[in-house]
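[audit] Reproducing an earlier prediction to check determinism. Same input, same settings, fresh worker. If the tokens differ from the archived copy the diff job will pick it up downstream; this log only records the rerun itself.
[audit] input (288 residues):
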Amino acid sequence: MTIAGKRLPPVKSILEHVLGLFLGAMIYSAGLNLFLVPNEIIDGGVVGVGLILTELTGISFSVWVVLLNIPFFFLGYKKVGASLAAYASVAVVILSFWSPIFEAMEPITRDPFLATIFGGMIIGIGVGLVIRSGGSLDGTEIMAIWLDRKTAFSIGEIVMFFNVFILGSAGFVFSWNSAMYSLVAYFICSKMIDIVSNGLDESKGVFIVTEKSDAVADAVMNQMHRAVTLLHGEGGFLKNDKEIIYCVISRLEVTRLKYLTHEIDPQAFLSIFDVREVQGGFMKKRRH
């Protein structure tokens, strides 16, 4: 399907994104309203500002979270991309829908320590699902993407600056214990976001420098069923030609790859590093 010459995503893909946004926003709202807010613990970003303004003005959080995000989503539409702005808008509307429902429920715990840990985990799962579905619950992230192109600061540094300022403000509005709990919850949330958005089975990139590149490459492809790429290089000291093997494996396969490589060439050099996202690189097992 096309509109004005632009190809639109398949309807099935759009529905999958919307379902992910719905579940993510619902889970986030549950963690926020059943764990954090009753214990005066807030999240960062626009949500944190909305919670502070709700405390100061008495106006519903559902109203603030939509109003505060409007300028950021408009900026996202103009400067970042229509898709992100659209999915983020849907996620925030869903969040504003669920917030009064969970607010009316009895909190799961009144222990701030437990609320910080479990609330941080739950909102992290919710945000992770929203991110995996192409959306965002925080307009400051969209602003950070735009500022990243204009300044020398990274997206992470910009978001961290905003959130440290916002979470620190909780000390003046609620209490300094609340501010400290909020920082801990934010840290737990960020870790859960990484797990949900990247998956538990983290990928590792591997460079292998060996004199037996053909044998090692064959072993990786045939025994581990991983695709490999041969890069042509040159030794820095002897200036001799070398073939460097590059492949991507799961975190659980690192030990096996080390053993397999050193069994063929005990002098092989391996460089292993984290990979944020992978598509492809797997080989189908042969059927006999």
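[audit] rerun output stored. Observation attached for the diff report: The chain has ten helices and six strands.
[audit] end
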